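Chapter review: from sequence to fold.
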Amino acid sequence: VLNASATFTFPVIGQSAENYTIPGGATYNTATSSEMMVPTIGYMQDAETALTYLTDYNADLSNNMNPIFSLFQRPAYAVENGIFTAGGAMSAYQPDDTLLNKFLDETQTDHILKLLDLDGNWYRLILPDVIYTQLSDPVSGPTAHIHAYTFSAGYDGVTTARIERSV
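The token string follows.
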């Protein structure tokens, strides 16, 4: 959908609930509940090649950290360190067999997604070691063929998955 919004959502882990007193003279920026991204400005790359025929992209990143609570204690006993996981789904027109061959050959690739928010900030999501794990059959008929892929991304200790922000 043209001019649909793109969003990032970040969960927060809390260890305990405590009262907080704002220090005298402190000032804070006004909080916003959401900041939309402009999906018509930016790009998505697969192995450093622009995917100009992408129609949908959803990614799920998790560090799998969780607070560990125990009986009769208000604060968390500890925080469970998790293992990073990343995956998602995307759909794209099929102008050639590039993505299909990556799926069939189980070829590792990387994804770089760059988006602009309404305040002029750029966000870049970098996922190394992506493998396409599932592919839908194309719809038959005279319309353009759109394939839907699911993918899984690994954690590379050298390049690392990350989100970068720049103005």
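Two observations follow directly from the output. The chain has a mean pLDDT of 81. The chain is about 5% helix and 45% strand.
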